[in-house]
From TrEMBL:
Transmembrane segments: none annotated. Residues 9-267 form the GP-PDE domain. PROSITE patterns: GP_PDE. This is Glycerophosphodiester phosphodiesterase. It holds the Pfam family GDPD.
Amino acid sequence: MTLARQQQIQVVAHRGASDDAPEHTLAAYKKAVEDGADALECDVRLTADGHLVCVHDRRVNRTSNGRGAVSALELADLATLDFGSWKNNHGEADEGPDWEDTSVLTLERLLELVAESNASGRNVQLAIETKHPTRWAGQVEERLLLLLKRFGLDSPPSDGPSPVRVMSFSARSLQRVRAASPTLPTVYLMQFVSPRHRDGRLPEGVRIAGPGMRIVRNHPAYVAKLKRAGHQVHVWTVNEPEDVELCAELGVDAIITNRPKQVLSQLGRR
Ligand code: G3P
Ligand code: CA
């Protein structure tokens, strides 16, 4: 792979630097920023009282010391939980690193971290994924856009790229985002290639494709097809060196990884 190509690939920290630190915590995102990630990826869900929090699973059981669905808990309930100790030495709570900043992370706090980082000279972007948005009939997107608006991030600046993009496996969710904010970039995530997207076309108005690494490994020519159709290609979740190499050879635009430090080093950027 050429140096120019290596430099162009955006490295996105998936759930933060989630290989090293507990996913979706401030600790994981601070580490990703320190490691030099170009962008941060997060999943968002609505709490019972309407706050957007960064949690991947429907339930909090895997990544905290609590139990229950995010949608059934209020922010105050979630705030009592520890989202970090499950990561201590693979679950043995009295050994391994003692993480700080491991309470539930609101999207608002993550937006503040991005703003703080950028105010101190960095240029960090945020890729926000709406999880199970169909259950909420538009409320996730509505809350998301209100919050982005508050931070002045609901549309790109006139003189540069958007610091924020919205991703989803749901074309409907992206459609809602575009209806409210037509210039905000959207990413259509794909676990497999459905017949209607085989020719490289995406849902109307979507400019960025987000194929899983399995698609890229099994159908590398699909990347070129997407690019010929005029789309950027952001691949997830790319952790192994041979997958990074393949993505770079194929000319993808962004690599979404749990290991931003290693990927940046492999691309010769650290
Ligand atoms: O970046 C897209 C990727 O995060 C989608 O899969 O399950 O990790 O949210 P998941
Ligand atoms: Ca995600």
